[in-house]
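Review session, final week

We close the course with one last complete record, chosen because it touches almost every idea we covered. It is Phosphoribosylglycinamide formyltransferase, a protein from Demequina litoralis with 216 residues. Go through it on your own first, then we will talk.
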Amino acid sequence: MTNAPRPRRVVVLASGTGSTMRAVLEAARDESYGARVVGLVTDKEGAGALDIAREFGIPTAVVRLADFESRALWDQAIARTIATFDPELVLLAGFMRMLGEPSLERFGGRILNTHPALLPAYPGAHGVRDALAGGAKVTGCTVIVVDHGVDTGPIVAQAAVEVRDDDTEATLHERIKGVERGLVVRTLGRLAREGWTVTGRSVRIGAATPTSEEEE
């Protein structure tokens, strides 16, 4: 009888309610999922994600931008805080700030984020609104590996959501969020179990060891 592989260590960064983190934590109750959340880092003292982390017994850290003299110092503090949890994957789950160079240098190729549109279409802060304004009949959500740009990282996975004739930004976004949580859970689990390689714009799932082009 062989032992099951050790789950990969995941640190979640969240600024809001933590609904995506909860979905991951629920999935991780199954030992075969392949990933284990070992810490939550937030930039908001009142983030709902903190309550969920306490419910599941997950260690937390709050790193507020207002507590630092400059954005550069905050960037360094975020990278140091993430590193204290020794993660193999970093998941941005409703984290409302871009990660700076210190985090990208330290965890490049291992940071995941989601966007409520089918990238490269409709990047930026208003992906749902822009899809409606553009007359899209189908939009959705995308999981990417974070790079230095805004929603420009290599695409890992996508899921489509139909745009209905009577949709508002709120109704469409709510349906996308439901699909997005499932996509994140599935994608994170696959990466954790199977490994991945990032080469340029391509993400290949199934590599034995996670690497990025810069690490090769």
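Two points worth writing down before the exam:
Confidence is low (pLDDT under 50) at residues 211-216.
Helices lie at 19-27, 48-56, 71-84, 101-107, 127-133, 169-194.
Good luck, everyone.
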